[in-house]
DNA sequence: GAGCGGGATTTTAGCGTTAAAGTAAAGAGT
DNA sequence: ACTCTTTACTTTAACGCTAAAATCCCGCTC
């Protein structure tokens, strides 16, 4: 490894002069500068970032900590990256597998020290566990969990989104709408809130809420969504609509319906949540609640920047608005 | 920030004793140990990783550098993560947007110093640019590019995969198969090699190779795939099969075919490449070349571990085998 | 030609950690 | 009783960088 000291010796100057040339801090006479640059080139010197980080107490790096690199998080990450880079910082992703232990470890003082700021997509931690996190490091939480007031937090209008999607299907004739994955779950506000929206749409339309139509799924995967809906079909429970808790789950529903010979949207209308890239391409086009990834990314990064810039005012709790994107899987669609 | 020195003062011992307790290196008498631990707890001390990294010359962190966090890379990342973690290291993802400048920057001495090893999914750099990278840092390259011999490299059997998929469609009756995105491109061995496989399948079957069926796409997205195939349909060029260069592009083709009222696989057979999670759920099930993400991940991580363990033998160039997963989008399917 | 101002460069002093060498005290061996 | 270990802990010296203070050198003034 080539150090500044090696360059300094080669150029016949002090280490500080090399530092000043490399970082363009204090002015350096042109002949000296040229000699230093020549030495830098000759030796292939590049600054040791670890040493700089230690000395500077900054890393110019932001971490986005996600449960998995898949699907929704992959798409959001790609929105966040340019916003972080625009401020001259680096973005790195870390993965927690959604487990509370991993998330807690990611929020440990030790790990936080590696970054100037952290965006954490909370999947496993509850309010109490988060409350135990004591740090001055800028943090913005994302995700559909209950979090302590002192954290900046961006989440989606889950209830409203679910209500919109369900009401839309009711408006277009569905009367028995499966809430696929919309189970009550103290830990999981995502499913609970979407369940409430599903329920409210029914009540608003004067329809009965039948608990048999709330179908639990084992994981938020397409496979689990398909299996769960196939079970519903096999059970003989009649239905004419499906609101899936996420688009990934909705894709599983698409598969189940196709396998079972049920036509979308003629026999069964279908809507999802997240409006992933793929959703507009899966025939006949997946009606979905759009959570505006880009807006969420901008809001979250904005809050983080504010904190990193030294803002100490009260934390904000943003609920990102949603809108329904109607496509061919429901009867209002094109 | 609480430093070891603060803990040492609180516990009435030297800094080294704290270090020895915290890292369980040299043995420390139980009463002393307890006093140190109490001080650690009281002050909420956690080690400063930046300082440790500088001192140790190691970071116990591996970076996976990808063009984007989306789709294929998201899925591969999720396979790689547990393999890295199993060795007690951390995995972080960085993004290059696929641009040569970003990739080169990621391979700069400075950035490499932050990691004990790097997995780089090459998308933009060519052989010459890679050849300019001079570093002893363990690196494994992934992706369908030509790379200098001295780098460990894992790529897919692109030609064979494309040939398998195309031959399969020919075997089941297709005679005019669009090679969607399978253009020759000096820089992009992925498309070129898959094009060659598409071509070979034709020749093996004694069919003419008609260049009009090689359809370029602007980007490897579903939108570009759909638009390109819609153009083909509008042009009136007759076809009865589509081999899409990736599953993401194939999804665009699915949309284009559905919009145009063409039935899959009755009117048009369709096959893709990558076998993404979604591919088995998009009706009628996407026939796809499976590149065995998990195997690729294991191979790449294995090569990286070997290098990090000090192996200095010649680099390996692994071509990961592929197999065809037949689903409903082709006529051999279920 | 002593004194001064100011730009160029160097010296000093860490950032927080840990490998290695050093010391001090208690116990073992002869 | 004196070495010789062993155990427990401390001191020293970096890792590679840079903010701040100190020094040097030159032309300029009066």
Mind explaining what this structure looks like?
Two copies of one chain form a homodimer. The first copy, chain A, is an alpha/beta fold. The first copy, chain A, is built from 13 helices and twelve strands. Chain A has helices spanning about 5-10, 15-25, 30-45, 50-55, 70-85, 100-105, 110, 125-130, 160-170, 190-205, 220-235, 245-260, 295-310; strands spanning about 60-65, 90-95, 115-120, 140, 150-155, 175-180, 215, 240-245, 270-275, 285-290, 315-320, 325. Chain A has a six-stranded parallel beta sheet. A six-stranded mixed beta sheet of chain A has the order 7-6-8-9-10-12, sandwiched between helices. In chain A, helix 5 crosses helix 13. The radius of gyration of chain A is 26 Å and the shape is elongated. Chain A starts with a helix and ends in a 9-residue tail after the last strand. The model of chain A has no long low-confidence stretch (mean pLDDT about 95). At the A-B interface, helix 4, helix 5, strand 2, helix 7 and helix 11 of A face helix 4, helix 5, strand 2, helix 7 and helix 11 of B. Chain A binds a DNA duplex (30 and 30 nucleotides) through helix 2 and helix 4.
